Amino acid sequence: MKCSVKTILLIDDDSDEHQLFTDALGKYNSTITCLTAYSCSEGYYLAQEKKPDVIFLDVNLPGTHGLACLRKIKKTHSLQNTPIYIYSAGAVTNKDIITALEEGAKKWLKKPYSLEDYDKMFATQIN
Known about the structure:
Layout: E1 7-11, H1 15-28, E2 33-37, H2 40-50, E3 54-58, H3 66-74, E4 84-88, H4 94-102, E5 107-110, H5 115-125
Helix pairs in contact: 1-5, 2-3
């Protein structure tokens, strides 16, 4: 499977989500490197350091909220063009979705619950 994405950064505070995401990504395409961070500050540091091709960002982060993290990343010149997918398992308001898109998120996604759902998300979002 040909894919231009070489590195994905996942910023999410849930360790179970990290495991599911990385397992699903490995099954989808084992040539893509997955970097993981548990907070905005850790994710921001990794994004600056590693320049991932794509970022998946949980909106409900402790400390710095996902939307504030999105703004911080998008204000960084070297990361401005990096596609960022905001996603959440919980209920969100239309206002949050609109704000995320206006702030530069490529898309708002509902967190997948199965390996098959992750496979579909990767197929439509990173190819």
